[in-house]
Write a structure and sequence with these properties.
Blueprint lengths: L2 H12 L1 H10 L3 H9 L4 H15 L5 E3 L18 H14 L4 E5 L6 H4 L5 E4 L7 H10 L2 E5 L9 H11 L4 E6 L2 E2 L5 E2 L4 H6 L4 E5 L16 H13 L4 E3 L2 E2 L13 E2 H7 L4
Parallel strand pairs: 1-2, 2-3, 3-4, 4-5, 5-8, 8-9, 10-11
Antiparallel strand pairs: 6-7
Length: 274
């Protein structure tokens, strides 16, 4: 049984509890009897929780999803469900997996307030990392903000974006995510020297193992799955505070970033090595 199947079993067993309680309170004698005889499976649910905790280890886990992929290469590309439906999906995820924190992108200042109802960490896209109004709106509504480093910016230049947030709210926790720098031949390159520079002014520095492998000159923003895996190992050596990595049960059929997504089974096998 793989971790996904364990989670599905846990959710099914948890659904028994409200059914049992409702049946026991029913005025219908037959339903009352069913409720009394229905097992709550406490022992099994506790074992499942311990199993899942062993998979997750002592790490903090964040699930990042986009309600709108506003910077896709083509106007015809899939963008996502939109703000309203996206927030409902995020609420559902938080309900079923309360130990996992939710991260999503923001594109406009007006989205900050509604997103603050459900999102734990708001992410500023790399192309928008210097947009003052967007940074200020997030600083007013979120306790944790993750800024993706622009592909054209040095590590040192990211201090200005961090300072904009800190001037609005000095207590806001600001992360900076390295997602590669683009040089003259259309490939993103990770400058590992930048992690120590950014740690001087950011609360955490994250390595985006997925998007750092992109090769924008191919007409579409491709990537390299093998390199993404290697970056995840390098992040530990260079002492990043965390990694971002996209995964999929069948990466080749993923809607976006299929070339750089890692297999879900591989990620599970490497949890304790990242």
């Amino acid at each position: 049984m793989n971790p996904r199947e364990v989670v599905l079993l846990k959710n099914s067993l948890n659904a028994i509890i409200p059914i049992k309680e409702a049946a026991e309170k029913s005025d219908n004698e037959s339903l009352k009897i069913i409720g009394e005889q229905l097992q709550n499976c406490n022992t099994l649910r506790e074992k499942i929780s311990k199993t899942l905790n062993s998979y997750m280890g002592d790490k903090d886990w964040y699930l990042k999803g986009s309600f709108d992929k506003a910077n896709r290469t083509s106007i015809h590309s899939d963008r996502g469900p939109g703000l309203k439906e996206g927030m409902e999906i995020m609420r559902t995820v938080k309900h079923h997996y309360p130990n996992i924190r939710i991260v999503t992108d923001i594109h406009e200042p007006s989205q900050a307030l509604p997103l603050s109802e459900v999102v734990d960490v708001i992410q500023i896209p790399a192309f928008l990392c210097r947009q003052t109004d967007l940074l200020v709106a997030c600083a007013k509504n979120f306790n944790v903000i993750n800024i993706k480093k622009g592909q054209w910016l040095s590590a040192e230049a990211m201090e200005h974006a961090v300072n904009k947030i800190k001037e609005v709210d000095p207590n806001c926790e600001v992360w900076v995510t390295e997602r590669g720098s683009q040089f003259g031949y259309d490939r993103l390159i990770v400058d590992f020297r930048g992690v120590d520079v950014m740690k001087e002014f950011a609360d955490k520095v994250i390595l985006d193992c997925t998007h750092s492998t992109q090769m924008a000159g191919e007409g579409i923003t491709g990537g390299n799955r093998k390199l993404a895996k290697q970056y995840s190992q390098a992040a530990k050596i260079f002492e990043y505070d965390g990694v971002f990595i996209e995964t999929h049960p069948d990466p080749e059929n993923a809607i976006s970033d299929s070339a750089s997504q890692v297999e879900l089974d591989w990620l599970v096998s490497q949890i304790n090595n990242i």
